[in-house]
Amino acid sequence: MGIWSGITAIAHIIIIFDGWIEWDLLRLFYIFTPFGKEWVLHPGFALANIIGIIGLIYYFLLMMTSNNKSMKWLGRKSWDFVQKRTNTLYLLVIIHTFYFLFLHNTKNSNWLQIPFIVLVLAILLLQLTGFIYIVYKGKKEKK
Fold first, then answer.
1. Residue 143 clears pLDDT 80, i.e. is over it
2. What is the torsion angle, in degrees rounded to the nearest 10, for the CA atoms of residue 133, residue 139, residue 141 and residue 143?
3. Burial of 142 (0-12, 13-18, 19+ CB in 10 A)
4. How many Cα atoms occupy the beta-carbon half-sphere of 88 within 13 Å?
5. Could you give the CA distance from residue 4 to residue 66 in angstroms, rounded to a whole number?
6. Other beta carbons less than 10 A from residue 25's beta carbon
7. Is the pTM higher than 0.85?
8. What are the backbone angles phi and psi of residue 15, rounded to the nearest 5°?
């Protein structure tokens, strides 16, 4: 699942780079204003894209190390360290997506807002359920 989400992240980047910023990396930090017909630095927009870039770098790291050769080369503990930090990537993706769905261009409603909230809450509920199950199972084994 992680590799597939990495592939969709790469597809997202290709679509953005080819269709919107036209391979001009500075456009990741500037917004075009049609009234002034100029590119203006937008701090929130730039920060959200920097978070996305950091997330993409971490995706690449995870994808490159998601194999047996990497496990042997890095060693079990180092490999586990990298692979078990997906929470960091998840938070970066959530922050990046939240900005673009709720804070950027708030004049237009976005139909993806509700599915985003449902998905984030479902994941939180699954994590909480898993935590409760592990705690319950641990207490049961102690008896």
1. no
2. -150
3. exposed
4. 14
5. 12
6. 10
7. no
8. -60, -45
